[in-house]
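DATA CLASS: polypeptide
GOAL: derive structure tokens

***
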Amino acid sequence: MSVRVYIRFLLRLSMWSALLLCAAHCDYQSAVRSDSGQVRLHSEADPINLAATADYVIVDPALSIQDIQSDDLLWVRDEQSTIDLKYNSHVYWLRIALVGGGPQADRVVTLPENRLDAVDFYLLQPDGIQSDFTGQLNGQRSDLAAYPAFAFHLPAGKAADLFIRIQSPTALSFPVYLYSAPEFAWERKLVLIAHLSLILLLPAFLFYQFRLRPGSHGMQDVYLTLAIVCGSAFIFCFYGEAQRWLWPEQVWLREHLDLIFLCLFVMSYILYMHGFVPHRQSPLALHLSVYAFVSVCIIMLAYLIREPVEQNRLNGMAFVLIGMHLVLIPEIALLYRRSARTVGYLFVAWLSLAAGSAALITDFLHCLSYGLFTRYTWPLTFVSAMVLSVYAQYVSRRAMNSESGR
């Protein structure tokens, strides 16, 4: 297999994954309340976004579902397509009035945000209550998805009140999606195929690194391989699939693995990029800045691992990402001035990572509401950047081999 054919295969695989993720997580139609204040469910309207119809209230964590039904509470409605929750030591409750409709009585409601610490679902009907509990604080996991999800039964014409209790260590933004059971099963299949496509990229990258690419394997190859492995592991941990394995037995790992892998990726990728810089023909300050930042990353990682507040860990991760790009800018500029053969590929790879980092930082700092940009820009730009980085390494090694053969 030629290198060009191999690179084309990787790009097509990543584009296919992107299309599947977009199809599975597009912005769904918002539900509309009737004059009675209820949301009528119809099979042809699935899936829908219930966020605009949800009332919310902030209360003491000690209040139970019986207390929440009191008429004394002041419920608020924003009528936005996302639920934006600022950090609060108290508890958020959501309330949505539903009326069943259509032949499909089995439904699934989801909150696609894997950093919610504890989410309790209650569906109150005149003849009983359906409930489910997810999250690390109550030691339960969601078997339906990597984020809180609740399956319930609501026949046509039956009215029910859906209450959702939310506890979170960070500021969050997410929609409230409602599916019929068949629609939810189809959505999970799309996500599974997309994730498998992305997972297949990791062994494909490694196979290329050690089997297809010509030349000896030095430290630069090791750094790139570490960057690929750690970046892939960060995606797996941060975007929730690891949660289904680590909750509730390994809470500490679930809370810290994404931080560890992101810092390792940043350090490995900076050292990989630094390998393209001619050491004897570049300023000493550039070399010192690279190794100084790597040292800062190690110190910050050791500090943040002990940090109990998740929002502080997210702020530290944002600092690491910003620092990575500040260090890479002068290196890219130096390679451009020297007209290096690989500068075009490395520049586009850096731009891809910059776009992905911007999406991650806005997610960490709660600058933008939930959307495809904040959720899936980083995985897709990471794959693109790694493809370009691998090809840049190939071009550089081929140029060195041709020069040494003259």
Q: What stands out?
A: The chain has a mean pLDDT of 78. The radius of gyration is 24 Å. The chain has two domains: 30-179, 213-404.
